[in-house]
Amino acid sequence: MKLSFAALGNDLYTGARSVPVVARRRRFYIASGLLLAIAVLGLVVQGLNLGLEFRGGSEFRVSATATPANYEQVARDAVGAAEDQRGINVTLVGNNTVRVQTERLSETDSQDVRQSLATAFKVSEQNVSGTFIGPSWGASVSQQALRALLIFVAAVALTLSIYFRNWRMAAAALIATVHDMVITVGIYALTGFEVSPATMIGFLTVLGYSLYDTVVVFDKVRENTTEAFANGRMSFAQAANLAVNQTMVRSINTTVIGVLPIAAVLVVGALFLGPGVLLDLSLVLFVGIIIGAYSSIFIATPMLVSLRRSDPKVVDLEKRAERHLNRKAKDAAAAEAATTPGTERDDVPVTVGGGPAAEEGDSSTITGRAVHKYAQSGPRNQPRRPPKSKR
């Protein structure tokens, strides 16, 4: 059977098919809980590999025409003794540039390291650049990044509360956003990628993307639930699940379109360019966009349903929807019984002789015989016996 993605999207939008996202929300909560546990474990055990901009230190870049295969060991031997190896980070940037990051060095030590690196890689000292970033500047960057994150979260909470006129929607959106941020940061810690200012920009971009997708879904949720409150044909959970299904294909398409170019940049950066701004930014965007699409579909809306489960209006709507469903099922059963020959109906009054059910030509009496509409029931309606003389 050939699967048409367009036909699937149309069926999901009209309700011909349905993915029970809200009904099975506990499964998605458990899956997200496992991901969050792994992410937190990575943060606690391994921790983030903070870049030089955050922790401060010295950085040297060696530009060589031909980089040896064992460039990392050559750089470590040139920088210092074995007991100092823990503070040295050696990476290959591009094809011919070796980046060496160390702890804070004095001016004299920095000059010695530059000469050692030039000798080890057989280049002139002019091909070895050295920079120093103080810890105070790194602390300032960290404080500014944290401040930007707090302002972002506060602004988002206020904006969503005003837009949706419901604090529970804002709370559900923020829960999904925190979910995305923790998992993304945890994956960054597990992979050991360096956290740079470009990474912080990527984090904020991911949060914005995740909220954008969630707002689109919530807008449809608000539209469906408003209609449900008006006619009482669906419960709040059913209307919310329909909204998720109606926007699911759109979210998947948007995610695929956004991830494909980022994946290309990530592969090129990892294979050819090495560590740098492009690789840092592409990794956080790649992970964050996928996690953001997942949370907007499987976390945000189910969380909203869970938060509003005890709302009196939602409880009353669920009762109205149940009554509507029972009435609809009863009408369908009655219609089926009416069209099926030989089926008895308990809800239709049976009349013998007179009444509405005994119209002319009607065969709905007990015996099944047609009875005239003016005929009387009982003994008077029985045929007279002929006189004895005429027998």
Secondary-structure map with pairings?
Layout: H1 5-14, H2 25-45, E1 49-50, H3 52-55, E2 57-63, H4 71-79, E3 89-93, E4 97-102, H5 107-120, E5 128-133, H6 135-164, H7 167-191, E6 194-195, H8 197-231, H9 236-273, H10 277-298, H11 300-307, H12 312-339
Parallel strand pairs: 1-6
Antiparallel strand pairs: 2-4, 2-5, 3-4
Please describe what this structure looks like.
The chain is an alpha+beta fold. The chain has two domains: 213 residues, Up-down Bundle (Multidrug efflux transporter AcrB transmembrane fold); 77 residues, Alpha-Beta Plaits, CATH 3.30.70. The protein has twelve helices and six strands. A four-stranded antiparallel sheet has the order 3-4-2-5. It has a two-stranded parallel ribbon with strand order 1-6. A hairpin with a 3-residue loop joins strand 3 and strand 4. Helix 8 packs antiparallel against helix 9. The longest helix has 38 residues. It is elongated and about 100 Å long. The relative contact order is 0.11. About 8% of the residues have low confidence.
